[in-house]
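Thread: quick sanity check before group meeting

JM: Hey all, I'm pulling together slides for Thursday and realized we never actually wrote out the predicted structure for the chain we discussed last week. Dropping the sequence here so it's in one place. If anyone has concerns about the input, flag it before I start.
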Amino acid sequence: MIQAGNMMHRERCLPKRTPKAISRKRLTICRAEYNAAGQVQLTEAGNGIVAEYSYEESTQRLIRKKDSREQPSGEREVLQDYHYEYDPVGNKNAKTGGRII
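JM (edit): ok, ran it. Output follows.
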């Protein structure tokens, strides 16, 4: 684990526990980054998909989750892009976006 300022970074592949009957492939998380509040900011799966998480500063609620993967050209292709909205007491009242491809 590497800690720099208010950010933590872990890099190690962890096998995902899935029943053998459900999946033949095993997905792993090879990288995870956390903010000072301990919330996940980024994960990179063994298949190259990167999930980025954004949080509202004042409430620390999740406001965006974006999944992408690198293309042969070096550019990142966005696979999913969700935006979340909450009511004043913290109930999620909207989830917009979604699967792009």
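AS: nice. The radius of gyration is 16 Å. The first strand starts at residue 2 and ends at 4.
JM: adding both to the slides.
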